[in-house]
Amino acid sequence: MKAYDGLYIDGAWRPAASTDTIEVVNPADERVIARVPAAGPGDVDTAVRAARAALPGWAATPPAERAARLAALRDALAARKDEIAETVTAELGSPLAFSQAVHAAVPIAVAGSYAELAAGHAFEEKVGNSTVLHEPVGVVGAITPWNYPLHQIVAKAAPALAAGCTVVLKPAENTPLTARLFAEAIHEVGLPAGVFNLVTGLGPVAGQALAEHPDVDLVSFTGSTAVGRRIGAVAGGAVKRVALELGGKSANVILPSADLAHAVHVGVANVMSNSGQTCSAWTRMLVHRDRYDEAVDLAAAAAAKYADRIGPLVSAAQRDRVRGHIEKGLAEGARLVAGGPESPRAQGYFVSPTVLADVTPEMTVAQEEIFGPVLSVLRYEDEEDALRIANGTVYGLAGAVWAGEEAEAVAFARRMDTGQVDINGGRFNPRAPFGGYKQSGVGRELGAHGLAEYLQTKSLQF
Ligand code: NAP
Ligand code: MG
């Protein structure tokens, strides 16, 4: 057990004023592995003041120099990739190979993409007799979840820093150690003091103080729709910019012409990866009635192969929520074909890879985000029915379409109310805009669109 007493504020690790602490638990064996400070409103205020004081200098730093700092940050993260992967595995529970391939590698790629974007971005443009300046929004309050702990930090901090903003980060209480590693990398790179600050703490205390702080210009939040709604209201009340990356209930639409076995295998892998704790996971598989039974058998067999491969959920609370969802699905008439609500192991917050068949669109498991290794398989009659089901939730974050011909899948994807669609298993692109339609959020992350979130325009007329 390691006890840390510092928050990273104004270029140094400083003892928190608050004496409260957070225990970090390894979800695979339920042991306490570390203790970190739980910042209070006073600590948040100190961090925001540091970010405010650093803003004029960082905003005036030439973009090329900001880009060079981000390239150094990418290198500092790359040098720590093993430590990052081991830390994510310890506090989130994901298998080490997944932590290496995704939790460590993706943020390194995203940091690199912002080093390049900052170097090449037009921070000034001509519009007729005007020169339009793209200036940093100001002090950013970033609030992140635990499911992709480093990715979600980098997806906010890298574009914010590239834009010339300064940052105060409140990471998830479950995964503060990964956030500390990020702050160490920032420190190593020698960013000016106060440009990036880390306050570990609880959402309703430190998170809320950050979102409500009058000197925060933009709140960027990723997490649940319930908390996002409150943060949006607070930001709206103060006329602050806000970016919200919220939940999802994405549809994996397998059209009749698709390679069914391939589509089902990739679809099951997508849901089981990170133990289903992925906001963009394709948790609803939509299959034509003529191929439904075959698809259910394939999905059940594919899910069973993950039984010994997936990690635990992040916490006992998440495990209990997910088990509750499975029980509710069964109570509402779904048919269990793999997994189930029972705990598969005596120790650790594990849930079995679960497949529910005969799920109908109005069931709770087809409407609410479960955030666990649970796939619902739904039956559709024809393409219009599939579209109605796919679009029939309050969410619109991601999705997938499979068809024999790409053009057929694209035609369907154009009619989906969602921010991302993978065509016949298209690969993740760290430069493509990521974000939600409908209640999945406001704003976009990643790539040039993610950078634009942290800029505001000023027009000079000549
Ligand atoms: P959450 O409560 O929304 O947490 C996200 C972040 O917001 C965390 O840093 C959290 O701090 C903070 N927070 C909580 N209450 C706050 C408040 N009143 N003001 C400001 N910040 C606040 O999500 P969660 O508890 O980690 O997970 C619950 C559910 O959210 C999941 O089951 C899943 O459905 C959804 N979720 C979605 C995503 C996504 O990527 N879209 C990610 C994670 C979770 P604490 O860590 O202290 O709570
Ligand atoms: Mg929470």
Q: Describe it for me?
A:
InterPro entries: Ald_DH/histidinol_DH, Ald_DH_C, Ald_DH_CS_GLU, Ald_DH_N, Aldehyde_DH_dom. Keywords: Oxidoreductase. The active site is at 245. This protein is of the alpha/beta class. It folds into two domains: 2-246 and 439-461, Aldehyde Dehydrogenase, Chain A, domain 1 (3-Layer(aba) Sandwich); 251-429, Aldehyde Dehydrogenase, Chain A, domain 2 (3-Layer(aba) Sandwich), CATH 3.40.309. The chain has 15 helices and 21 strands. The chain has a seven-stranded mixed beta sheet, sandwiched between helices. A hairpin with a 2-residue loop joins β6 and β7 (130-136). α2 packs antiparallel against α4 (96-120), α2 runs antiparallel to α5 (149-163) and α3 (81-92) packs antiparallel against α6. The longest helix is centred in the N-terminal third of the chain and has 25 residues, at 96-120. It is globular, with a radius of gyration of 22 Å. 55% of the residues are buried. NADP nicotinamide-adenine-dinucleotide phosphate is lined by residues 143-147, 170, 172-174, 202-204, 207-208, 211, 222-224, 227, 230-231, 245-247, 279, 318, 369, 371.
